[in-house]
Design brief:
The chain is an alpha+beta fold. The chain is about 60% helix and about 15% strand. The strands form two sheets. It has a five-stranded mixed beta sheet with strand order 2-4-5-7-6. α5 packs parallel to α10, α6 packs across α8 and α8 runs antiparallel to α10. The protein binds adenosine-5'-triphosphate (ATP) and magnesium ion. Magnesium ion binds next to α8.
């Protein structure tokens, strides 16, 4: 049978044994040098036993009281760190439960610290990216304004050219700020969806109309895979879905080849779900970039001299909007051949 003494019992036992041994040795020595007291040898055994029991009781109770006090103080300190999880914990002198509690707290705190570190990194990166994106148009505007002040304003032709270029940079600033505002609202959950029934075919046609001039500049055709003569009614936030389609079609134009095509197709996947595909035959995306496309500020071409001046927020906004609708978005792309972005929507039956 295995019986494990509490640490404090074993300490009290050994100490009491040592005390009673020392006392019995001293008393034994006295009896030995004083033969007239030799009849007290039997009492010596009794006194030793008594000393042992009394010392054991005193030492044990003092240790318990001491440990209890220390542990209580420790719990008090720990409660300051973690008031919820420990406030109901019963205080005992049992070291095992104390160690268990401490290790639980340290685990929770470690996780919290890790997530704070990640958030801090995230924040730094976000601010760095925002500053970087705003820098270019602001410096451009500053350059033109300074040139105008320095005399360029006197030449009407140069003045108009510089003012127009400054205006383009102001528009770029507004575009970035709007995207940042949208992404912040989407991420903080303060942007509520305003869902209703609407015809998705009509919405895509409207978006095509708005982007026609942009597409014409590259001689890109905006088409459907077939004739959709009947409306297809979906239930979603119309403005946000328009933003999704706009961002995807703009991308297909921006990263599309001259004389290319952007094609939209719609297909039922279940009785109440629809998949909308936006396909282009543009530059395509290399495999290694695909998994990061929806990260904010992520661009395939990170160089400052890149052909297309986007901030890399478009797809991140698209993903947030689709997630908010509890729908899915997919991407398939072959470098040099083209890309297909598709997302699901819920039909209104
Ligand atoms: N249809 C596409 N074909 C090829 N590459 C694409 C396509 N769509 C997106 N990409 C790549 O994915 C990157 C991220 O796209 P995203 O729309 O998020 O940013 P952006 O277009 O660079 O900037 P923004 O949309 O904020 O103006 C782009 O920089 C581009 O390299
Ligand atoms: Mg884009």
């Amino acid at each position: 049978m295995s019986f494990k003494f509490k640490n404090s019992y074993s300490f009290a036992f050994k100490t009491s044994l040592a005390i009673s041994l020392v006392i019995s040795l001293i008393l034994g020595f006295i009896l030995w040098i004083e033969p007239s007291l030799s009849y007290l040898y039997f009492e010596l055994i009794f006194i030793t036993a008594l000393v042992f029991v009394i010392s054991f009781l005193i030492i044990q109770s003092r240790i318990e009281a001491f440990i209890y006090l220390k542990i209580k103080n420790l719990y008090k300190e720990l409660n300051l760190i973690d008031s919820i999880s420990l406030s109901k914990t019963e205080i005992t002198t049992d070291m095992k439960s104390l160690l268990q509690n401490i290790s639980e707290i340290s685990k929770v705190n470690k996780l919290e610290i890790e997530s704070l570190k990640v958030r801090e990194e995230f924040r730094k990166e976000f601010i760095g990216n925002v500053a970087h994106e705003l820098k270019t148009p602001i410096f451009t505007i500053q350059g033109y304004v300074e040139n105008l002040i320095d005399g360029a304003i006197d030449d009407n032709l140069v003045r108009d050219k510089f003012l127009n270029r400054a205006k383009i940079s102001v528009e770029r600033l507004i575009y970035i700020i709007k995207d940042l505002d949208m992404i912040t609202k989407l991420e903080s959950g303060t942007l509520n969806l305003d869902q209703d029934s609407f015809d998705i075919i009509e919405l895509i046609k409207n978006t095509y109309d708005q982007l026609e001039i942009q597409a014409q500049k590259k001689d890109i055709k905006l088409i459907f895979n077939k004739l959709y003569s009947d409306p297809i009614i979906v239930f979603a936030d119309k403005d946000k879905i328009q933003q999704v389609i706009t961002n995807l079609v703009i991308n297909s134009i921006k990263y599309g080849t001259n004389k290319g095509t952007t094609e939209v197709s719609l297909e039922d996947i279940t009785s109440d779900k629809l998949i909308i595909r936006i396909t282009d035959n543009g530059e395509g995306i290399q495999k290694e970039h695909i998994s990061r496309l929806f990260e904010r500020f992520y661009r395939v071409d990170q160089s400052g001299s890149r052909k297309q001046g986007g901030s890399g927020l478009g797809l991140s906004i698209v993903k947030h909007i689709i997630d908010a609708h509890n729908e899915n978005i997919y991407v398939e792309s072959k470098f040099g051949i083209g890309s297909e972005f598709s997302f699901t929507l819920t039909k209104k039956i």
